């Protein structure tokens, strides 16, 4: 990627007030399809803490807040974070908080963020995170950094990670690219390999389009054993 993190953050801040019209209005069928699948697969319980990485204006975070105990949104763009905070306040949603955080350093330590993007969040190891979600954001990282991001997510030890994004089910150089410059999708195979390497079992692969999908990864270890939505319904 030839754009710095700061430049990318500024670019999103400039479009933050228009982002919802394009993505949250229900008029973008592909976006709706994978965003809905991310929410559906995240499936939080009332006591779960959910971390939404690349939360943007909080479309996914706010959708999950009704069912989750608490939702924490992290993003690099102050403008997007401001929109997310305004929407939460307008809707009277109190169990969400939004703040600065990067995929490879989410700056979540379990405390509620007071609002400043300068607030240091350096130690994420002791924070409790049950479910990590990320929708249409990981593609901003080149593949090697995607790997580092997934390693950082695994370090948080969530029971589940749900990733919706541009991803290639077929050729990584399609004849008719769905997305333009700035969307650096990975192959599904690469993402599944990395998720498996860091200790997740990939339990669902949803193909929305040949270049878009949703992956559900669950911890393989005993403490975070897989508990499918069907299992939970029958308990
Ligand atoms: C296309 S928006 C998606 C927002 C939201 N998840 C949604 O589904 O509507 C991508 C977001 O990822 C954020 N982003 C890009 N690179 C990031 C990084 N390295 N760490 C955290 N957020 C990042 C951008 O600032 C932007 O808000």
Describe this protein's structure.
This protein is an alpha/beta fold. It has one domain (5-234): Vaccinia Virus protein VP39 (Rossmann fold, 3-Layer(aba) Sandwich). The protein is 35% helix and 21% strand. It is built from seven helices and eight strands; from the N terminus they run ααβαβαββαββαββα. Strands 1, 2, 3, 4, 5, 6, 7 and 8 form an eight-stranded mixed sheet that branches. A hairpin with a 2-residue loop joins strand 7 and strand 8. Helix 1 packs parallel to helix 4. Mean pLDDT is 88; it is low at 112-125. Bound molecules: S-adenosylmethionine. S-adenosylmethionine (SAM) is lined by residues 8-9, 12, 23, 35, 53-56, 59-60, 75-77, 80, 102-103, 135-137, 140-141. Keywords: Methyltransferase, Transferase.
Shape annotation: globular
What are the low-pLDDT stretches, counting only 5+ consecutive residues below 50?
A: 112-125
Number of domains: 1
> First CA to last CA: what distance?
46 Å
CATH architecture: 3-Layer(aba) Sandwich
> What is the number of strand segments?
8
The profile of the biggest β sheet is: 8 strands, mixed
Mean pLDDT over the residues: 88
Domain Methyltransferase: 50-155
Protein name: Class I SAM-dependent methyltransferase
Pfam family, one: Methyltransf_25
Keywords: Methyltransferase, Transferase
Please outline the helices and strands.
Elements: H1 5-23, H2 29-42, E1 49-53, H3 59-65, E2 70-75, H4 78-91, E3 96-100, E4 131-135, H5 143-155, E5 160-168, E6 186-187, H6 188-197, E7 200-209, E8 212-219, H7 229-234
Parallel strand pairs: 1-2, 1-4, 2-3, 4-5, 5-6
Antiparallel strand pairs: 5-8, 7-8
Bound molecules: S-adenosylmethionine (SAM).
Protein name: Class I SAM-dependent methyltransferase
Domain Methyltransferase: 50-155
Organism: Halogeometricum luteum
